[in-house]
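User: Before I run my own analysis I want an independent prediction to cross-check against. Here's the chain; please return only the structure tokens and, at the end, one sentence I can use as a sanity check.
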Amino acid sequence: MARGNARRALLALPLLAVSPVAAQEACGEATVGSCFPQYDSIAAVATTSSGFAAVGLHKTGLDLLSLGPDGERTGSRQLALPDWLAEEGAERVEVQKLVAGSDEELLIVANVAIGPSDRRTQAGVFGLVDSAGAVDWSGPMRFSNQTSTILYSGVHDPAEDRFLLVGRHTNGADSGRCTSWSQGLIISASRSGLQVNLSGAASPGTHNRTAFYDIASVGDGAFAVTGFATARGNAAGTCQDNAVVMQISGGIDGEWSAGNRVSFGDSGVNEVAFAIAAAGDGRVILAGQGGVPDGGARAAMLATLPLDGGKPEVEFLPFPEDASDKAGGDRYRAIARLPGEDGFVVAGSASSSREARNQAMWQHITEPGDRSAVSFLTETRGSDILGLAADEGGTVLAVGTHGDGGRANVGWLGIIYGGGPVMSAERREPDTSLPEITAAEAAAGGLALSERELNAGIGLRGANLKAGSVFDVNFSVSADVSLTARGLPAQGDFDMALFDGAGRLVGYSSNLDDAGEYAAFRLQAGAHTLRLVAVTDVPTYEIRLGVGEPIDADVAIELETLDATARKVLTDQLADAGYGAAANPNIALGPQTVRSLIAYYGTFHAEVDSGSVAGFAADTAAAEVQ
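Assistant: Structure tokens:
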């Protein structure tokens, strides 16, 4: 929650499913997430120590977005482009992947298009981004002026403090035509240099086609790559691609070793795997696209297989499910492994016909055949998910594009899995059933309450409190009593202060901006004044006073049950919401914490009691509060 804006909180209560990211910009018909009209796409995302990082593409360059654990943007900075870009005749950098390394370093995996349109080739490029946002770009990676190198993905190898990148080397641009030969490409990149490995023959022909689209760690210093390899034995002039996976290791001193190369697919349909993750027990899970066997309907593809060469378990998921779509395109292009035994989230897009726009989709997968229903981001406007990242708690952030109502796309991101169930708790307005402060009382700058009214408890509603003005509520008590006072502005900021009959300050509440106010006082017999001091214009507000023992001590006892992490979360949320800085939560929840919490609770509930406030605190400490 932004400081001084306690208008809304999202609480971890199992009632409504509301995306935390939905609190940003409106996003057309999107079911979750936020749109960023300043970007053509949010192209890639990675998990960081503080949440997530993502790359937004716009017409003039790239921005690195910093995101909190709830997907809310906490900052952005424009990234410097390669200094050779204009000299090479390249217009922009197309980002494919963002990979987190050590010491807050990030790797950007990207490509550039070089040369005139009739002789254009592509060159892979990567940039190492340090913790300050400075980028150290590689040069354009080319083997000749007639061939292209295209990078698709990468992974960090912490044991060797290096990045492994994968892609393809092909003759000409990536036209998708089977007349182009293609070699799978693996690169080991670090500050100390590069090591390159190519798989496949560099010669023309419909059968010489291999590409690596993704790479994942499979343990013990080994990695697995996936993509496609053209099946052999087809008729002359034709080709059919099969999904391929291969284990690799080494590449540290220039030597690479490869394990079994497994390919699979139907002889009548092209299959390609775009993403890979370790599935345990020597297995990997692949996500990509293919076609329903013996039918040819376009379908998203999931496959689980052992790296030792065992038979893969393959599922084809066409949309629509009746497998009637032979012209559209369905694919899973990203996969995120969840912690523990929680499985995976896969994401991509589907289209019902060649003319239909892509609609972003995702699923939770535990094992083949055991998956949730498919969730879609849009129905008509068009959307696509380009990347996923999961944190240690199992929250999955997706990035991609969303149609803006026309044919153009804008950047999009959203939490699509995890983050805890949440409920929207709307801040209330001042209670319209309370008696109004009269025009005469407002003009006089104050009013008087009887002791009977005070003992019974009283609430008042006021209006048009001008900045710099004061309003006094005067009363007397015949014996020592405890008094609580609460205030709630609809907008604007006022503070409360209590003075005794001699004008001495007894106590006050001075929370920031439109945050609610709460204070408890021990009064001696005699005259007293509760003074409202308008910091800004306050259009409407309420105040409530009552005699009786304050609930501060009871709430404090209940809060002692919160662990250190929950206390830290709660105090941070109170400070961000505009309430006073609390005591060190590693020591204790101090009086200011309790009073801020009661004031906070009062912005959502007119009735305040210790049990409900304590429950509210526990839920809020467990929530992602916006």
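Sanity check: The two ends are 4 Å apart (CA to CA).
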